[in-house]
# Entry
Amino acid sequence: MAAVIIDGKQIAAQMRSELKAEVEKLKQKGIVPGLAVILAGNDPASVSYVTGKHKACQETGIYSDDTRLPADTGREKLLRLIEKFNNDKRIHGILVQLPLPPYLKEQEILFTIRPDKDVDGIHPVSVGKMVAGEDTFLPCTPHGVIELLLRSGVKIDGADVVIVGRSNIVGKPLANMLIQKSKLGNATVTVCHTHTKDLAKHTRRADILIVAAGRAKTITADMVKDGAAVIDVGVNRIEDKTKKAGFRLVGDVDFEQVKEKAGLITPVPGGVGPMTITMLLCNTVKAAKRSAGLLA
Ligand code: GUN
# Structure
């Protein structure tokens, strides 16, 4: 039977409208949540993400500062800019878009962000708290994946989850969040990667299969259990001369095949993507409330 298509756009729109109402209430108390996004370079996918973040802030009533820097921006200039936002009372959240140009040391740059403004959930302090199960900013894409599952009625508690991909942004934090003793977790998790022997042996066992491998058609129908929930985090550009841009976006899952086998599946675009930005907005509002003493 054909799978239920999880509509990330619609779920994200619902969450954003709830958030907009919350921002409105905060504004009545004189609090305007503020987000600073920094992009160094002009990687086309990053430009598109950053533009999307800025637009989403405007739609939700969040103040946003969108700084674009040339690809050859020096280390000192970038660190000074982060320090400026660290000390700016209008800014509650800071996000440095990754990947950075190759000569910049990612860890050093991310370390400079004040942990109480780390709405990306990527600073080592945030990561440590997440692993220890303490309250912190959760990284946006993994948190968005979990929200999509919960809001689609998928039971995570006790499920066999298989994650394909072990990146710092998706695979590793997702595995950690899903094993926590919490309403977002209690799953049994396997993480597969490029050195996994017989990938299909693992993926076929999954009640929930989450794919963040960065390669189109990594998952075909024969690799999926009947009725599984399949979440596709991949975003790959493939040439398509029929499109004005000359390309179209596809995920890591062979959607046309797998939708005939899975119970639920996310499309690309329109699945996980809109949720990532939504969770960033949620974290920014949380940061603003916390800085105003409205959260414990
Ligand atoms: N680039 C792609 N995804 C992300 C993300 O979640 N955070 C940051 N900072 N950069 C990204």
